[in-house]
Amino acid sequence: MTETKATPRRTTRPPKGMHVRRVFSTEGVHPYDEVTWERRDVIQKNWRTGETVFEQRGVEFPDFWSANASTIVTNKYFRGAMGSPNREDSLKTLVDRVVRTYVDSGLGNGYFASKDDAQVYAEELTWLLIHQYFSFNSPVWFNVGTSSKQQVSACFILSVDDSMESILNWYTEEGFIFKGGSGAGVNISRIRSSKELLSSGGTASGPVSFMRGADASAGTIKSGGATRRAAKMVVLDVDHPDIEEFVATKAREENKIRALRDAGFDMEIGGRDMASVQYQNANNSVRVSDAFMKAVEGGEKFGLTSRTHRGQVVETVDARGLFNKIAKAAWECADPGLQYDDTINAWHTDPNSGRINASNPCSEYMSLDNSSCNLASLNLLKFVGEDESFDVARFTRAVEIVITAMDISICFADFPTESIGATTRDYRQLGIGYANLGALLMAMGLGYDSQGGRNLAAAITSLMTGVAYRRSAELAGLVGPYKGYALNAEPHQVVMRKHRDANNDVHPLHRNDTAVLEAAKAEWDKVVELGAENGFRNAQASVLAPTGTIGFMMDCDTTGIEPDFSLVKFKKMVDGSSMQIVNQTVPRALANLGYSKDDADQIVAYIAEHGSVIDAPHLDKAHYEVFDCAMGERFIRPMGHVRMMAAVQPFLSGAISKTVNLPETATVEDIAEVYMQGWKLGLKALAVYRDNCKVGQPLSVEKTDNKSEEAAPEPEVRVEYRPRRQRLPKSRSARTTSFQVGGAGGYLTTGAYEDGRLGEIFLKLGKQGSTLAGAMDAFSIAISIGLQYGVPLESFVQKFANMKFEPAGMTDDSDIRIAQSIIDYIFRRLALDHLSFDERAELGIHTSAERARYVETGSYLSEEDEAELIDSETLKETAGDRIRVHEDGAAQPGLFDPAPAPEHVGGAHTSAELLEEKMGRAVDAPLCLTCGTKMRPSGSCYVCEGCGSTSGCS
């Protein structure tokens, strides 16, 4: 892409800028003229309420951009008031305002040798953006080129000292950052503990008490003035005297949430009563030292030290006991995470300017206090060539283009506070990263949790950061090193050599990682050489961010460093419909693994039917690992995630935004082991999430045999909340329905509470033997008791509707013409009789009258599509019959027939909801507050694949 040329430095003549040669764009042809553009209508609805939450018609995008990508960009990034002439309505307008600002600033600040070079650079940058090779972070698209402040950074680190003025300033600065749509992290360890005295003689409140004020502020301001919570990180050092109180804060509040929920209060996310619960607007992390972790290993004592008299031990605790309390709290509520202080600061390029004390909310950006970082992410799958090899040359050129643009942005950027602006301009921290790693590995036939997969990931990360720092050294030769470099030249160069040496420790296993590692080695050699000569333009270069919204903008299958979420997904169509598909990386993987097209087609069809590769025809069990995902029957084990993070960490300036998910059955000891291994494997930060820990039952009191009440320690009081059975009244209303399913008859009798709620069922089948009769009686009793203990009827309907077994077929019920089994019929009938319209609509269950009305009014499904949902003739028994056939007669494996949104079979609207149907159990993730669909994990937060909203990270 570029060739750097610098003249000798003179006091009267500045160095020449870059000469830019083309790699991606075509001379004489604008990038816009190389693609076909089309106009689309973007209409977003909340699937739960049916409300239209966003609408803009006639927006312009390349024809290869997905409906999802164009919807997210239109909704999130187009500027201007809706309906006004100033409203953006084309991707061209969006890209032009951003690229123009970058190029004009670069030209004005001496980055380009001539206007012609600047023009070539503009076209290269434009080509990469419209072809979805990379994306800047969201604040760039929000602000650059508009009348707003030119804020380009998404990640901020603040500081707070042990004074009321500083604490109140922390609240203020954090509030302004939240209002601007970004997040911030802070280490509160300088604040004296509640066990120390104030200068006036009173006892200090302690940092945890001041967290309440910051939490309330964040909950009020929210992020960007929107409905989602603010993105916020609070860190406390493990040797702070209030560490145990800090560790327990969110777990204690989680118990409160459960108690209030069981008492009837609205404690859902965004619920009106959630405001009474504290500490919910932040991620909490404990900053642990090597000394502490070694004390944990050795079962030794550890000293908690004074904040006012540094080094003075206030209290001595059992290190292993404290570590177990951290793991237990994380088991209960997912907080706190760990940040490994000595590892973080051992890779710090600017230690002479100050320590790294904190991180941004997602833990990937770690640098000096009062600093910021702007991010950009590359779409790795775009760099896989037709021969299925990783294109080192094009990847290298893309990194050069992107890292140059990121550095230019600091020349014109605005910042929320003067101190953040000064630190960022002095150290110029950047965060280039990538998305689609999981999809890349699967497409190449490599398991995510395999040595081959880890080696390729490490090699690509090493190459990316090596090229970024090499370009940084070249820019330093052109426009000068960062201001703080002179003070930190030696430690910065030491860290560069550590990166280079780590690259030599990666041993290639395949042709791809061999080629990438060789290129990375050459880049790191140049980094060390050029850095010694020129210095560096940037203190930091790379991180791995969540890439939630921008990942969807690039049509990525996977975000950040994450593996694929599941093998089956929903794909939104331009016409507003959607279809279920098997990940398109699966056929590529099968081809790379040597399967014939016929065998691959059958495997894909099987996955479409079952959502898993287990027992797929022709598939070698040794290849199962290639198709392991974050969720599903073969989910990647927790240490698989930790090992992948450890493989790439030595090649990042910052850290990795990722949460290690554990199954609901994981123990406190399992979490402690993950945290211990994260330290041993050299990670900088680690967060965990145990499925359903936010809604699971608390532990019951552990009984002990205390001989002497006087000598016994104060017991830990834990309340166990049990569901209470609400029995039906002695006399209650009942209803009996006769039915016929596939020639078999029976009777369904239901009993209800006085308010009409279903409370019991009885099933009687005709011509049944004593064994079947007993089974039906037991089944009826089990369902009835579940209803009386508060299990929602819709949960039973979701599990039992669509269950297939004989007898099945035609029924005598006009509302349910076809049933796939007697159980399928029973629960559909119960839904029609006892659930509201909205509840049934989510499950895709309607009366014949409702369906007729939809056809007449056009408000809901067409008659043809409705028939597709209820007519079992279109639901064939074999996976092969469920392959979509196009008009040309060619079969496209892995695609189910398109189903109109929102009423899909089973009511699924996103991949997370589809996976729930396939797995038969819930995916532990919140609902999107914008469009109502289930979100999925992305880094250390959640992202909605329907509208691009995130749960906290920008």
If classified by CATH, what would the architecture of the largest domain be?
Alpha-Beta Barrel
Helix content: 25-40%
**Biggest sheet features:** 10 strands, mixed
Sequence stretches where pLDDT stays below 50 over 5 or more residues? 1-13, 223-228, 695-721, 858-906
Envelope shape? globular
Distance between the termini: 30 Å
Radius of gyration (CA) equals 30 Å
Count up the helices. Answer: 28
The number of distinct structural domains comes to: 3
The CATH class assignment of the largest domain is Alpha Beta
CATH topology heading of the largest domain: Anaerobic Ribonucleotide-triphosphate Reductase Large Chain
Family: Belongs to the ribonucleoside diphosphate reductase class-2 family.
Protein name: Vitamin B12-dependent ribonucleotide reductase
Domain Ribonucleotide reductase class II vitamin B12-dependent N-terminal: 41-132
Cofactor: adenosylcob(III)alamin
Description:
39% of the residues lie in helices and 15% in strands. By secondary structure, it is an alpha/beta fold. α2 (91-108) crosses α11, α5 (164-179) runs parallel beside α6 (207-221) and α14 runs parallel beside α20. It is globular. Residues 1-13, 223-228, 695-721 and 858-906 have low confidence and may be disordered. Its EC number is 1.17.4.1. One of its GO terms (biological process) is DNA biosynthetic process. Residues 153-689 form the Ribonucleotide reductase large subunit C-terminal domain.
